[in-house]
Amino acid sequence: MLGAMLSREVEDPIFEQTRAWLESCPDAYFFLVFDELHLMRGSAGTETAFLIKSLLVRLGLDKPENRHKLRILASSASLPIDDARAADSLAYLRDLIAPFGTSTAPSDPGSTDPEFWRKCIIAGTPELPMAHPRTMDPAPFQELLKVSCSQQDMVTAIQSADAEPALVKIAEQLGISTALPEAERNALICESAADQITLACVSATKAEIRATSVTEVAQKIFGGGEAAKDAVRGLLLARALNESDVATRALKQGTPSFRIHTFVRNIEGLFGSVSQNAGGTTEVSDLTMDRGLSHAKTRDGTRGRRLFELLYCQACGDLLIGGQRGKTGSPAKFELLPATPELEKLPDEAAVTTFDSKTLDEYAVFWPSGNPAKVAERPYDQWQRAVLDPALGTIEVGGVTRQGCISGQIYFQLDGALPRAGAPKTAQPYCCPNCGTDYSLRPASNSQRSPIRAFRTGFTQASQLVATELFELLYATKDAPKTIVFSDSRQDAAKTAAEVEKLHRRDLTREIFVTAARGHLKLLASRFVPDGPERYKKIGELASNPATQPLLGAQLDEWTKEGPGMQNQKVRLGRLLQSEENSTSAVLSIIAEAFIRLGIHPSDVSGRDSFNRRPWYKSFEEANGKIEFASSLSLDNKLEIIREILASQEEFAAEVIFSNSFFALGPVDECTRP
Description:
Blueprint: H1 2-7, H2 12-24, E1 30-34, H3 42-58, E2 70-74, H4 86-97, H5 139-148, H6 154-157, H7 164-173, H8 182-200, H9 214-222, H10 226-239, E3 271-276, E4 282-288, E5 295-297, E6 303-306, E7 308-313, E8 319-325, E9 333-337, E10 363-367, E11 381-389, E12 394-397, E13 406-413, E14 452-454, H11 459-476, H12 490-527, H13 533-544, H14 552-567, H15 590-597, E15 620-623, E16 626-629, H16 635-658
Helix pairs in contact: 5-7, 5-10, 8-10, 9-10, 11-12, 12-14, 12-15
């Protein structure tokens, strides 16, 4: 961002006015603050150093009369000065900043000596608890964890009556009197739990606090084992006793909080060796998730069998084999290689490109089957006979089957699949050769145009899942949830931010859909009268009352149309979504009303489209517990919004109900048509 500001004309006044102030005011000082100043080597460190010095020159702080007006403050956890690495730390600070920030007066030229920076570093000293480490029984802490998991609000749950027996036993183990008032006792439990966790994180060789694994903490406090890990979770809950609105006694100043690093492995593919058994079936072994290995690892350290990337059809589960195309000079014979990182793409793009984004020139897909391959309805796919040598990893197109080799078919894409002349062909088949699942008719804008997938988890999906769980915990503690997702790739970081928002909206949409369907079924069930004496009696009551007589026809129509659905727990989509039937009336559908109530745009996924040239939410208001159109809108304005909502529902219904994912609602019958 600083680099962008230095190069944009629109930012010039900021630097010019700051420079003028520094030059004109004798008491003006410029404070440059670095957060997380880490050791950066190579091109990244050089770029940062030049960026800093460009800023200081731009502000005139390189001039002898102004250089003493610079003050530099920085925090860092990676600048050791008490061991053999001290010289590197001091040289790094000198190279990054000097001679800037080293002058005390206009006559002081500053220093370029690395030793100058030694006295500038203020090393932190850990404040260790005065308590003594304890070895405790894990049972009460496990019980506290069990109680907390019984309710959604974990922090409130551990302060309920159900948690009282466990808290009494925990207090006894921590040496806290159980005769104290509950608020005082819980505060002492919280402080003592923090002390014990801190002491468990103290290094055995040095009296300093270090990052410590949960396993090691469990070993030190509870003696180790799987049960001890759950006890550590209970101990952390004990530390959270006073972290809710229920607590009345404040904790003593300096009570430590803790940061936990949880690592979620993002699987980048599944790899294995292949062979053919006596029955002619292809077998897979030596499975691994380590990308980049060419051969399997063996117990004795020798080189194992050749590894290939495994692919599958998400419709039928049939297995295929893939790999990077080796450059042999012959399109009829080439080697399948493990995908190699493209380091030159960092940091803008990820180092490893996935199967979904490979071109036909880069990647080959082999189907180990002799059955006739099914192809796409459009002239997009072609499968040719080929032979795979699993020992050498070579594929020979049109080759003769021989001992130890696997017969199959290799994928080629036809020119008809190209969106334009000269465009690269993709390595992904549009149709599964085994089951015939065909994605060729999908629009070009669809991100999934092949049923063949790699065994991998998406970085975005993993980030969204973790973020959702963290948000749940933060809501439980009554905090305002915020999250920051980092990535080694700038492009991945940008994509992740957008995709997490998109996926969250998709999941929320499904939740709204299910909740609305259940609520509507419950409402219909409360009004439904089964055919028989009860219905005849109800009809008589409606017909005899002049106030309800006009509603009789509509009620009979509802019983007729919705009766089967109510009895079988089915609901017509037309009752939930905006339908053609109500497009001529200014009535919002159940789903649209639910969206608006939550502050979500009812028709635009991005949430930015306006209605009548003003923010979309100003077109609605709440009256008598219902979301309605704003009274200031004309009927034409209301109907125009209804039509926009109606037009956006086709994609909405397709994704929520028919989407090919584990979170779709599954198969539906003819009642799904709105």
